[in-house]
Amino acid sequence: MGFSSYKDIGEVLKEFQITYTEANFMGETEFNIPEYFREDLAFMMREAVVDNSEFAVCENLIYPVIKEVWKSYYSKFVLWSHRSLTYDLNLSGFPEYILAKRSPLGKFVFEKPYFLLVEAKQDKFDEGWAQCLAEMIAAQRLNGDLQVTIFGIVSNGKGWEFGKLENQNFMHNQAFYTIQEIDRLFALVNYVFQQCEIQLDELVAA
Question: Model pTM?
Fold first, then answer.
């Protein structure tokens, strides 16, 4: 039973005994968005069909944002696209995007720990969170004894939701953000990357 088999977050919570809570935990870390990015996004939103499939959502709306922020953190992390993630038969599949520690052996080595999972859905946010949480649990278990916080993002490209998994507790951020608030959205995504970097630095120092 892979990630895509999960359609209801309640099923995931019950199967893996995860506690669900809601709160506005997200911070905002200012990010300087290049002008070329603003112009390209405006062009795509105006002229292109950006959300007719999950692949289109990924390619046109999610990946450009995630990638632009990742560029500031590339020395410590690799941003993987549609990379297999397998813990066992129930926790396996291909998340849209995974943020993982950069291996000292180079960019082609899929290195633990995994900090961020991103799932794209066409307006099916409940289903998206069921799959994303399953992916987050797999990442947490693959990290082994490392008590890291795993972040999750579910987006249909235009709307963005955030969550985090700490031990056996999943917290869903109550506020819902849109790509129309581009400066704020980048500040939120940058905050997630910053939190991942802080954790990685702590793990390296330990």
Answer: 0.95
